[in-house]
């Protein structure tokens, strides 16, 4: 019975988003690897490439990133009602906990054991973020090429850390360039193929003339 319930897509969405909402200490950056694990590795709702695209678009839009991704996952799997279920499952557990602990939250925020819990989980979150960043970077280099990929890393770092441009603006700039880049590459490939076809046709014409 329990197995059948967990095979239900609504139950999967609810359980996955509930876990990420409860375990995700520290906000968006700590929740993203958890959601990625549930969506890509555990339930295999999508490929890593699609999750990376969702992450980029979610960063460019206003509002909490984890809630936006939860809404997209729910909508992708079960439509509008799935989005509602997914978002509620993500925010209700932590919301209830916040309400129940509201009177003692000031005390707990400075309590030694709470600080110890946050300090202990921080390295785990850092490793998960690092693994995700490495995998995304590896795909970027494969998709754009070594030199363009590493060049983009340097430009993004300079814009975000040096110039301190808002991440949403940087993401939109790179999205626009990405669309231009793909169109340019596709056009160059078409020209190359046409050139090769003309060359083959020319050779065939010469061969027929000799015959």
Structure characterization notes:
With 211 residues, this protein is mostly helical. The chain folds into 2 domains: 2-144, no CATH class; 151-211, no CATH class. The protein has helices at residues 2-7, 9-23, 28-42, 48-60, 65-100, 105-110, 112-144, 146-162, 167-210. Helix 2 crosses helix 5 and helix 3 packs across helix 7. The protein is elongated, with a radius of gyration of 24 Å.
Q: Roughly how many Å is the radius of gyration?
A: 24 Å
Q: Kindly, what is the distance between the CA atoms of the first and last residues, rounded to a whole number of angstroms? A: 77 Å
Please provide the ordered H/E string of secondary-structure elements: HHHHHHHHH
Shape by Cα distribution = elongated
Count of beta strands: 0
Main β-sheet description: none
Rounded mean pLDDT is 78
Helicity, in percent? over 70%
**Number of helical runs?**
9
Count of domain modules: 2
Structural class: mainly alpha
- Low-pLDDT segments, ≥5 res: none
Report the sheet-strand fraction: under 5%
InterPro entries: CHR_Transporter, Chromate_transpt
Transmembrane segments: 81-105, 111-132, 144-163, 169-188
Main location: membrane
Family: Belongs to the chromate ion transporter (CHR) (TC 2.A.51) family.
Could you provide a short overview of the structure?
The protein is mainly α and 211 residues long.
Task: Provide the descriptors you would attach to this structure in a database record.
single chain; 211 residues; mainly alpha; 9 helices; transmembrane helix
Give the secondary structure arrangement, pairings included:
Elements: H1 2-7, H2 9-23, H3 28-42, H4 48-60, H5 65-100, H6 105-110, H7 112-144, H8 146-162, H9 167-210
Helix pairs in contact: 2-3, 2-5, 3-5, 3-7, 4-5, 4-9, 7-8
